[in-house]
Task: inverse folding
């Protein structure tokens, strides 16, 4: 494949990305009668969704009939430290149950309750057992279900094509340009609506649980196209990633381990989480090991809990910071983490409820988790921030450009609850597909602007023509190490400022690297292009982190260690690009609708009452 | 045995199709590496253009299938400590792409045939009303099949495909597992038996169990999926009692 020619294609709706959100959006779009295509840089069914483990949160009330959308709404808002968009949190809590039942009708086989309906497990921050799950491989189940449904909906699939630029006419989006990974060919697409469903950015950190795809492609496409991003300072460091051996550092250890009764210890064999219950959660968690153990016994035997849950099930931001503190205080495990123990559940239960964890530790670390403790530590897991969208339609601030799933922002605020991402994908994937298709109905097919396509292709080919330069792989590793060191779980003004300077230098190195000349499946070439996204999106994340002078949820500043309710509790960071420069401003949060505030208060009162009955309530 | 600092020789397929040959590399190892880490190290330090398909590096996506020292495995789940042990001293570790599929470049093959077959399989058809009811035992039977990560190592190993190239007549182990998953779903009402026999050629399998042996998800492909489908075909087409019953009862089935 030589030259800079390209093929043209025309669609009503193009979905970029084939994970849970992209597939769900495309299915909905096709069902609305829109001519729909998916463009994905991987093969079908390989997207990061396969790595989701613990479950999909939905207030089905199968495992505890006291659950309902209001409690789920409350838990999501509280987990977000009240920065979530309350309309999105409301829609999500109301619609998730139907989306889960729909998956079942499309072939998903969730674990069952004794009364033969979908079972639900406990997770951090969820008041009741709420996560529909399949052992510890729920993401695989969901992506396979959507894939097996999606291939029968008349959607065209462009697999192993990476979208590099969005085309625009005036303010609106009119199409996109992609390169083929296999042959190095180019395609230009005309589209009336485009849905971004490219996932997250966590590959920007060395210790991460993300797959190779997580290089912020969609975030960068949106930024370059003039869309606004919000909440980009909020990156979730999942408390339990593997820490040893080095080559597996970061691989996720599901929160399901703690949901099934896993205990965290420091090297003094103290269950340190009892010491880390924050003010806002005080009174709702067990205060003694005996109480915590009783909760586990009750829950695993299928009873409704009569005591309070273990502090290991606090939200992810809290547990991650606690492990970090223990390590810093010299009480960490031999390889710089904490110990996580599930062995008391016995081999049979572990192999049944956590089969892939058993397998993962056995195969990759030579550890039998039914007998030994795991070593775990924080890993960059999820970006709460992303494309700012209309809560009802998922349209970005650029007309015709939609976003759903991890790349969209608003549902999770400062911290996402476990299980709320899989439900996010299906709830807002459907909404994005529906509205993208509706918009397309009233439009004529946009013209493909040849000049924009040619310019895009020229920038893609440029790295292959440099003749000499660094191997992009080395820049990739060094940039991730820098982000890990300076924009990690604990941040300071000095380090964030350094990071912003360093990123300029990395960007310059990326612009001068040389991946060879081959256009066919050239991993280095793809990486050279990814580096540009990563540098820009890392800059956005660092800038937002520098600006937010407080600590909240997934964003912790050593120099501003407490939440600042008076200003930052009321404001969001909005980032966008103008004439090639990244800009930032603050916007005040819209006050919550009255009836939703009433719901929040009702649920708070219910939780307090329950905690008092169970012996706490201080 | 610590591998840190050890210099290790590799021989890796480089090039495209007929023009591909084996290229030698040497890298320094670190503690706890898997084969995919080594391939990345070769790419990052010596050969930026090296083609390798991977996604999760955690054994969940099934993208990095290859033949390591002749054995089909996932590169991300194969520990170097094991491979070093099995490789004779002084011999490089050999990494080749899957042999049964058309070669694209280096370690990457064209696995699109699997997706084309999947497209021809009728999806699940169950009750219109939501909130389906079935128990955990019924669920478990199907969940076992749904642990498939679509690495296609089973297809690569199946001699009906690898040696006899029966890609037009036989659906391959992966898609037979998919058929079994639907057929054994407690609430599925679709009939796929005639297709399983004719279009998907279940009878081509002669139960050598090679697919089961290489499955990284531990699915009992032969015993739990293929043999069960074969039995359903036999029941429909060859069981005299069933035939008599159909005549007496006037019950029609698709043949």
Result:
């Amino acid at each position: 494949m030589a030259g800079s020619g390209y093929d043209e294609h025309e669609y009503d709706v193009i979905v970029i990305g084939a994970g849970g959100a992209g597939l769900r959006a495309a299915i909905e779009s096709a069902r609305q009668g829109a001519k729909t295509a998916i463009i994905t840089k991987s093969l079908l069914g390989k997207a990061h969704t396969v790595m989701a483990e613990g479950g999909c949160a939905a207030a089905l009330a199968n495992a505890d009939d006291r659950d309902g959308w209001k409690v789920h709404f409350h838990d999501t808002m509280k987990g977000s430290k009240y920065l979530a968009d309350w309309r999105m949190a409301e829609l999500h809590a109301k619609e998730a149950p139907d989306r889960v039942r729909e998956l079942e009708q499309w072939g998903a086989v969730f674990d069952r309750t004794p009364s033969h309906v979908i079972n639900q497990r406990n997770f951090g921050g969820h008041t009741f057992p709420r996560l529909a799950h399949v052992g510890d491989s729920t993401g695989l189940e969901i992506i396979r279900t959507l894939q097996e449904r999606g291939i029968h909906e008349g959607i065209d699939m462009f697999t192993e094509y990476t979208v590099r630029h969005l085309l625009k006419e005036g303010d609106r989006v009119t199409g996109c340009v992609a390169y083929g990974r296999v042959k190095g060919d180019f395609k230009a697409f005309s589209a009336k609506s485009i849905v971004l469903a490219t996932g997250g950015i966590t590959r920007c950190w060395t210790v991460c649980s993300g797959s190779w795809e997580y290089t912020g492609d969609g975030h960068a496409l949106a930024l370059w196209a003039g869309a606004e991003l919000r909440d980009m300072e909020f990156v979730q460091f999942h408390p339990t990633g593997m820490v040893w051996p080095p080559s597996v550092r970061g691989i996720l250890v599901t929160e399901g381990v703690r949901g099934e009764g896993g205990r965290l210890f420091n090297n003094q064999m103290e269950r340190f989480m009892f010491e880390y219950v924050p003010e806002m959660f005080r009174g709702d968690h067990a205060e003694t090991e005996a109480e915590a153990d009783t909760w586990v016994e009750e829950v695993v035997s299928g009873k409704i809990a009569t005591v309070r849950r273990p502090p290991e099930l606090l939200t992810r931001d809290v547990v991650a910071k606690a492990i970090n503190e223990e390590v810093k205080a010299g009480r960490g495990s031999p390889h710089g983490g904490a110990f996580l123990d599930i062995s008391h559940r016995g081999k049979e239960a572990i192999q049944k409820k956590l089969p892939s964890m058993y397998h993962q530790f056995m195969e990759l670390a030579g550890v039998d988790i039914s007998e030994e403790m795991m070593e775990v530590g924080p890993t960059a897991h999820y970006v709460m921030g992303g494309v700012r969208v209309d809560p009802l339609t998922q349209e970005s601030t650029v007309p015709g450009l939609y976003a759903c799933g991890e790349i969209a922002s608003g549902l999770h605020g400062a911290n996402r609850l476990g299980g709320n991402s899989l439900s996010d994908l299906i709830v807002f994937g459907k909404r994005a597909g529906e509205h993208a298709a509706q918009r397309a109905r009233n439009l004529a097919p946009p013209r493909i602007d040849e000049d924009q396509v040619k310019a895009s292709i020229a920038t893609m080919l440029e790295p292959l023509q440099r003749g000499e330069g660094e191997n992009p792989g080395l820049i990739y590793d060094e940039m991730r190490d820098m982000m890990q060191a300076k924009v990690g779980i604990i941040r300071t003004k000095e380090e964030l400022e350094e990071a912003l300077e360093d990123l300029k230098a990395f960007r310059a190195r990326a612009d001068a690297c040389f991946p060879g000349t081959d256009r066919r499946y050239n991993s280095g070439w793809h990486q050279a292009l990814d580096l540009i996204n990563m540098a820009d999106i890392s800059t956005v994340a660092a800038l937002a982190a520098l600006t937010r002078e407080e600590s909240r949820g997934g964003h912790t500043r050593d120099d501003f260690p407490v939440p600042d309710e008076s200003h930052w509790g009321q404001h969001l960071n909005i980032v966008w690009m103008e004439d090639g420069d990244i800009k930032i401003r603050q916007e005040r949060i819209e006050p919550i609708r009255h009836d939703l505030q009433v719901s929040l208060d009702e649920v708070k009162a219910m939780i307090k009452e329950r905690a008092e009955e169970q012996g706490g309530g201080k | 045995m610590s591998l840190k600092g050890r210099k290790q020789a590799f021989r890796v397929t480089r090039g495209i199709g007929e023009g591909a040959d084996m290229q030698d590399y040497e890298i320094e190892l670190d503690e706890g590496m898997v084969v995919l880490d080594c391939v990345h190290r070769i790419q990052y330090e010596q050969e930026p253009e090296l083609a390798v398909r991977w996604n999760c590096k955690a054994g969940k996506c099934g993208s990095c299938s290859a033949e390591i020292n002749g054995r089909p495995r996932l590169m991300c789940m194969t520990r170097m400590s094991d491979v070093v042990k099995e490789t004779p001293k002084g011999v490089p570790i050999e990494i080749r792409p899957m042999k049964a599929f058309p070669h694209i470049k280096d370690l990457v093959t064209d696995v699109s045939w699997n997706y084309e077959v999947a497209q021809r399989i009728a999806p699940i058809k169950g009750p219109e009303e939501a909130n389906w009811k079935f128990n955990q035992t019924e669920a478990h039977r199907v969940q076992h099949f749904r642990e498939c990560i679509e690495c296609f190592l089973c297809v690569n190993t199946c001699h009906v495909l690898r040696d006899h190239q029966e890609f037009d007549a036989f659906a391959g182990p992966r898609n037979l597992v998919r058929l079994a998953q639907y057929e054994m779903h407690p609430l599925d009402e679709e009939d796929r038996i005639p297709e399983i026999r004719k279009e998907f050629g279940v009878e081509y399998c002669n139960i050598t169990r090679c697919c089961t042996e290489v499955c990284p998800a531990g699915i009992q492909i032969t015993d739990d999926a293929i043999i069960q489908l074969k039995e359903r075909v036999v029941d429909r087409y060859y069981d005299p009692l069933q035939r008599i019953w159909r005549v007496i009862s006037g019950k029609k089935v698709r043949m």
